[in-house]
Amino acid sequence: LQCHNLAGDGQGTASNVVPPPRDMRRGQFKFTTTGGVKPRRSDLTRTLHDGLKGTAMPAFSLLPEAERDLLARFATYLSVRGQ
DSSP states of the chain as a string? Predict the structure, then answer.
C-alpha cells in the first residue's frame, strides 16, 4: 500500500524511491518465468517472498503464505483492471 498505492498506480507515500514502484495497472511485470507474458502466480508470490535485490521492493517472507497469495491475486486483479 505504501509503495504501490491502493489503486496500484505506484504513487504511494514511498513513490520517491529509485527505481520507483511499478504501476501495477499497466499489467507489465519484469520478473517472470513466462518470457514477457503475464506472470504466473508463483512469479508474484516469489517476488513477495524474496523481494527484489537492487530495488526498494522488500521481502515479505514473514507474512503467511496465504497472505502472500492474496497479495499476488490483488496484483493480478489490478493489472487486469488497468487494461
Answer: -TTT-TTSSS-STTTTSSSPPP-GGG---SS-SSTTSPPPHHHHHHHHHH--TTSS----TTS-HHHHHHHHHHHHHHHHHH-
Question: pTM of whole model > 0.90?
Answer: no
Amino acid identity, position 33: T
Residue 2 in contact with residue 14, Cβ under 8 Å?
yes
pLDDT digits (tens, 9 = 90+) for 4-38: 998 989 998 887 888 889 898 888 888 888 876 78
**53: which 3 cell numbers?**
535485490
Alpha-carbon separation of residue 68 from 19, 24, 34, 81 (angstroms): 22, 16, 20, 20
The CA R_g of the chain, rounded to the nearest whole Å, is: 12
